[in-house]
Amino acid sequence: xxxxxxxxxxxxxxxxxxxxxxxxxxxxxxxxxxxxxxxxxxxxxxxxxxxxxxxxxxxxxxxxxxxxxxxxxxxxxxxxxxxxxxxxxxxxxxxxxxxxxxxxxxxxxxx
Length: 111
Known about the structure:
5 helices; single chain; mainly alpha
């Protein structure tokens, strides 16, 4: 948020204005209090209130989440039924192995 050649005084002023000079628990308490009151804070990137930004992107987020859920259910239920009725078949072993790998894979590998 500051240029690379910012003075120590500028850094301290920004730290104080953002409340980063307070203990973490105090910062978190302020955040929760503001959140309960509907204040999501200010976006550092867009320099505006964060709530309208979140609400603007909410429809696309919900659309993506619903589409992903529909695809997941459309694949998982038939595959689960097939695996249950055709035990130890190649497709069952593939589905079971894929499920185990998917559950064991760390989240950061998927990003």
